Amino acid sequence: MCTDRNAFISYKRLASPTSIKLGDETTVIASHHGLVDILQKSTTLHLKTLYTLTFRLSLLSINQLDRSDDSTTFRRGVCSVSMDSITLTANRVGDLYFLQSHADALNFEIGVS
Length: 113
Hints:
Blueprint: E1 8-21, E2 27-40, E3 43-51, E4 59-61, H1 62-67, E5 71-75, E6 78-83, E7 86-93, E8 96-100, E9 107-111
Parallel strand pairs: 4-9
Antiparallel strand pairs: 1-2, 2-3, 5-6, 6-7, 7-8, 8-9
């Protein structure tokens, strides 16, 4: 889920808005979807992403990653997500893990509940 419209390299309206339930039991509405690039080291990863205006953070869903062939590990305040031959790394700050993209400083938070 991404809140930055300018981060999308492709962008389309959903047939109907979709509700997303967050870890704290609140919901936000996504109205569009598309691809967002994340640059990690010298590799670009294209992520299928929902767009919402109703939330202040951009999130990667561990639940969605778990359903795919990607590997996610948590250890000593670091979350590592291996996908498409690259590994994304996020550091824990409070209850969230923050991933810093090198491309446009697009920040994604990895929510874990």
